[in-house]
Amino acid sequence: MDPDPRYRELAARIGLGQSVRIAGLFEMLADIGEADLMLALPADVPTAAEKLGRDPDEVQQMVDELFLKGLLFPSRKTDPPTWRMSRDLVQFHDATILWPQAPQEFLDLWREFMDQEWFGIAKTMGAEVTKPFTRVIPVGVSIEARTSILDFDSVAAMIEKARSLAVTKCTCRLSMHNCERPLEVCLQVDGAADYNLARGTGRALSREEAMDILKQAEEAGLVHVTLNRHEGNNFICNCCPCCCQTMPVLIEGGIRVVDPSRFVAVVDQQACTACGTCLDRCYFSAITLEDQEGAVAEVDPERCMGCGLCLVTCPGEALSLGEARRPSFIPGVG
Question: Which domain holds residue 205?
């Protein structure tokens, strides 16, 4: 049975009106009255109530419920706040999956969408955008002493500068569950931290706790990813190669929906013992090792994403990161 046209319209507002599954997800989250409310936004509560001919207190109660479900977002720049719905698929995905009362069938429908539709959508997005929405950031303390790292390249600097920090469960692994890698590792910074703490979907962190999570993520083989811009990074995801929105389509289909960092792995040929540990740590097939005497690991700079995971477990400390792209590679850098 096709969803009500209003759910189709909600899906269209995040660019996916053709997807029955996305419309179905909206239907699982909101009743018809709530759908009408979302279609009346952006607006503050009194304005929305007037548009719908409903009592403002009733509309406020609906807004509060939809906020907890991850469907509505407030702008505190106005008084009373102006409410809007998700602006795109990524925000809809990340916010709604963290809804604490999400039933299993809701998460299952998300997985079905990712398995059946996401690859094609990502391919279209990759062809249309000039720069991906996210980018890789290199591992933290492992490279600080080896190369020059600017603030927007450093997870440690992002944590140090943060006003507010929280951690949430990884929405990708929560719905896809293709691996057993750590789940509570998605770091939220400043406004994103405030939002998740207000919804009850995040846990407040100290800077020390945040750095410990990053170190654990590196050891577990998770890739740091953040917004692809110079200022205002509001999350540090820790991504696996099998559940993440961006990594599988990059690894399996070569679709660049995530940018590399500004760095590439560099091999010290004298220190390399050809142990092969780095081969298992590289998800992007950027490191090769010939099966012959005297061979050492080699890095393909075109395939290397500059994540630095190979550094973390190299027993001979034969790997480092070298700068491969100018700071202006990051959008917003002059």
Answer: 134-329
The first and second tokens of residue 143, run together, are: 């490279």
Identify whether 334 is part of a domain. Answer: no
Task: Provide the CA 127 distance to its chain's centre, in angstroms.
Answer: 20
Same domain, 46 and 164: no
Q: How far apart are CA 327 and CA 134, in angstroms?
A: 16
Q: Give how far Cα 309 sits from Cα of 196, 241, 267, Å.
A: 28, 12, 13
Q: What is the pLDDT of residues 254-313, one digit of tens each?
A: 988 999 999 999 999 999 999 999 999 999 999 999 988 889 999 999 999 999 999 999
Q: List, for residues 121-159, the tens digit of each pLDDT value.
A: 999 888 888 899 999 999 975 554 455 567 788 898 999
- Interval 52-76: pLDDT, tens: 999 999 999 999 999 999 999 999 8
CATH number at residue 37: 1.10.10.10
Q: How many domains does the chain have?
A: 2
Answer yes or no: is 119 within a domain: no
Distance separating the N- and C-terminal Cα atoms of the chain: 52
Give the model confidence (pLDDT) of 184-241 as tens digits: 999 999 999 999 999 999 999 999 999 999 999 999 999 999 999 888 778 999 999 9
In a domain, 104, yes or no: no
Of the residues 70, 87, 104, the one at which a domain ends: 87
Which positions ≥6 away from 145 have C-beta within 8 Å?
A: none
Q: Is residue 316 in some structural domain?
A: yes
